[in-house]
Amino acid sequence: MNHAIRVHEYGGPEKLLWEEVPLPHPKAGEVLIRQKAVGLNYIDVYFRTGLYKAPSLPFTMGMEGAGIVEAIGEGVTEVAVGDRVAYASGPMGAYAEARTNKADRLVKIPEGISFEQAASMMLQGMTAQYLLRSTYRVKSGETILIHAAAGGVGLIMVQWAKALGCTVIGTVSTEAKAELARANGCDHVVLAGEDLPAAVKRITGGAMLPVVYDSVGRDTFTASLDCLAPLGMMVSYGNASGAVPPIDIGILAAKGSLYLTRPTLGSYTMKRSDLEHVAAELFDVVKSGAVKLQINQRYALKDAAQAHRDLEARKTTGSTVLLP
């Protein structure tokens, strides 16, 4: 028997339906994974609502999970039956008790990392890795801004950036989240509704910032640009408040010849060698203790609709896992 969360039409959390589905069989290059934990991410909301379109309806959502390889298809050499594996990429299908996935998109979970940890960190942690180590490679002594600093990606980024020697400014929506961000190393916290550029100017003595990491989107985009020093980089990697409207690129010149990028994890892990490198660096920083994972919410997989409600209401902090 196998169950999954299925979406037959785009809409609210009530569109997430717990259904019995056939147990899939791995094709060539695929494996069957018995899932032990599934990661919850804001990209799941985008697919549920239709902001991002699924290949077809109905579909099983979810990009991230961890489990045990139960069977392998023809030609699979990357993993073997019994291996503990994790993933954080398409095709979708993570919201299931068992699923197939491409073998070359899996990484083996090292000793010392649990299924829940792996499921909670793969997408968020590898996102933090490429943002801090590739998109803009932060340097010791720099002051940087991380939006949604108490969220899943945010808490990992704050800790990692501190380990790299940065001074971190974080934005959060509540005082409770501000306390959480500070407890994880955030040097300065700015609450939603405050004048963000003015706060950054005060903190930096007018120098402003070399980089802003923005996962909020529409509500923070313009203020984020105003926090940057000339030649600074705006990294827009999420749309929690909605998509950023089309802009006149001349604004980048007017504000100091700024750089703007909209990166995705898929581009940074397209090659298997890149995927293995990004995952290995993430596993190492977690095992070293420099980054401590915050799994602050756990839901039964069948209760995914409630998890989505809480995520969209900004009631969650850190990472959330769904348990089959």
Automatic annotation (TrEMBL):
The reply to whether Oxidoreductase figures as a keyword in the UniProt entry is yes
Which InterPro entries does UniProt cross-reference here? ADH-like_C (IPR013149), ADH-like_N (IPR013154), ER (IPR020843), GroES-like_sf (IPR011032), NAD(P)-bd_dom_sf (IPR036291), QOR-like (IPR047618), Quin_OxRdtase/zeta-crystal_CS (IPR002364)
Enoyl reductase (ER) domain: from which residue to which, for each copy? Answer: 11-322
Task: State the Pfam families in the record.
Answer: ADH_N, ADH_zinc_N
Q: Which UniProt keywords apply?
A: NADP, Oxidoreductase
On whether NADP is a keyword of this UniProt record, the answer is yes
Q: Which SMART domains match?
A: PKS_ER (SM00829)
The UniProt entry, under PROSITE patterns, shows:
QOR_ZETA_CRYSTAL
**Stated name of the protein:** Quinone oxidoreductase
* Organism per entry: Sediminicoccus rosea
